[in-house]
Amino acid sequence: MSWPCCCLCVSSTAILRGSSASAEVGDDVLSIDTAGDRLFVFRPRAEKDGAPTVSGSVDVRLLLSSEKIGTWQLPPDHDSLVSGCALDAKTVVLLTGGAQPRLWLGQV
Fold first, then answer.
1. Residues in the chain with pLDDT values less than 70
2. CB half-sphere exposure, 33, CA atoms < 13 A
3. Exposure on the CB side of residue 49, measured as CA atoms within 13 A
4. Where do the structural domains in the chain lie, given as residue ranges?
5. Which end of the chain lies in a sparser environment, N or C, as judged by fewer CB atoms within 10 Å?
C-alpha cells in the first residue's frame, strides 16, 4: 500500500508511514503532519453552547512519545480552519475557509 502522505488516521489513531509508531489523536481531526521530531494534529472549530471558542487549533506532540508539548489556536472571530500542514518543526501553514479563504503562516 502506498500512502500519499506521511501519516494515516484510522479510528482516532495516527499511524506513521515507514514505522511502527502510532499516537492516539482523538476523533476531531482535520489533518495530521510530521516535521523533525514533531507530530502536528490539526483540529476544527470548537464550540461551547453554540458559540465558537476557537476557530481551529494545532496540537504539537513529540513524534516518538506522543507527549503533547503545546497547542496553537486561531481566535474564534477568524474563519474556520479547513486544513493545515507543517513546514518544519516550528512552522505551520493553515488554510481557513469562508467567503475569502486565507493561508496563515504560524510559529508554534
1. 1-23
2. 19
3. 0
4. 7-107
5. N
